[in-house]
Amino acid sequence: MSRRQFSLPGRTSSDPPDDTGCTILHVDMDAFYASATLLSHPELVGTPVIIGGGNRGVVLSATYEARRYGVASAMPMTRARRLCPQATVLAPDHRLYAAISAAVMETFRSVTPEIEPLSLDEAFLDVSGAIRRLGSPATIGAQIRDTIHDEQGITCSVGVSSTKFVAKIASGLAKPDGMVVVPRDEVIPFVQQLPVAALWGVGDKTEEQLTRLGLRTVADIAHTPLPTLIRGLGEATGTHLHELAWGRDPRPVHREHREKSIGADETFEYDIDDPREIHRHLLKLSDRVGARLRAARLTGRTVSIKVRFSDFTTITRARTLREPTDTSREIYETATGLFDALGLQRARIRLVGVRLEKLVAVEEAPIQGMLGEPDHGWREADRAIDRASARFGAGSVRPASLIARGSTSPSDDRDLS
DNA sequence: TCTGGGGTCCTGCTGCTT
DNA sequence: TCTGAAGCAGCAGGACCC
């Protein structure tokens, strides 16, 4: 098999770049969800396929054949279908993605323990400790790509550089199925030739603001006085972009990742204007969030809700509790309290969400009983539900109000993802 | 065109405490 | 007792990322 390498603009494959000091690798699976799904649909390989679903869903991923028609991730499904009507649409299989992701992360761990996963399908690796054992960073990148292709049957792209953000841009340029090395002494010209939108942290709005300031390339940002950037973009963003524009990104690869919030939200198939129906969804979401908190042995102090109306305007409300909690019932009661306080009169609601913030480990947060809670209260009930779910499957036990009339399937109301 | 779900971070405002 | 400043926490909204 031949894998594309060293495709930095202006270079040829006979001119391998100097990867000395380029110890950061960014590895990104190519069209991960689509490639993974096609493992069980080999007859669709080479054809346009879109992963996504639902009336109001968006595209999770698409094969490169579908992307040629303009289909892109996060695009509304209705639009994707219009752009590429001949595409096969498949529902996502999150269990499969998690399994492949775990195997890929294991491959990374065989190279170095210094891994920072960003999502299921990408991670930063600091390979400085592996060079003596496995070879240069570019050699290690090539080995990783071959291993993932041979063992998982999917391709990935690798960016190699001395900083995280340059490695990330490089892997994007390498796609699909390629590798780009940005030598240390070429970082500044490499970064400064890029459009501003290539910078990490520049989305539509920031790009608009930068354009208004007359800045189109990273070089423009680099040569703009810092106070001007701060005035236009704010202290944090201004400083951050100025640093990146000079190739400076001192952030190391972080092995440990501590979650700061855990939440769940749900877009309804049709807008809902019945507060009792909203309460039922808040109960389901609180239940889901509570279960995830307890599984992660975390508690949270601030309960926040999100409400999105039919016109897509979105509001959030939050309440900080006296003590942290991991009890689904307490989360639910706080969430409904926040929702009821909005005083909505038959407003058409598209989405509701529940989130727990200010997380602390169970061990660090002595949990107190809810006010008026009996000795064997909601906490014990939650634990019993968690045990039943572990044994019989998620959703095997749930609040009676979530059991639809005539329903016998636990999956009716509870999302297993 | 018509916008998911899971997150993180930043900014501005308000109210409380010192 | 009153007032203003400073610091901080909480809250709300928004931008961004995958």
TrEMBL record:
Protein's name in the database: DNA polymerase IV
EC nos: 2.7.7.7
HAMAP family in the cross-refs: DNApol_IV
Active-site residues, record numbering mapped to chain: E122
UniProt catalytic activity: DNA(n) + a 2'-deoxyribonucleoside 5'-triphosphate = DNA(n+1) + diphosphate
Annotated positions binding Mg(2+): D28, D121
Cofactor dependency: Mg(2+)
Class of this enzyme: transferase
Primary location recorded for the protein, binned into one broad class: cytoplasm
Feature type site, description Substrate discrimination: Y33
Organism this protein belongs to: Knoellia subterranea KCTC 19937
Localization terms from the record: Cytoplasm
Any single GO CC term annotated in Swiss-Prot or TrEMBL for this entry: cytosol
Record note on quaternary structure: Monomer.
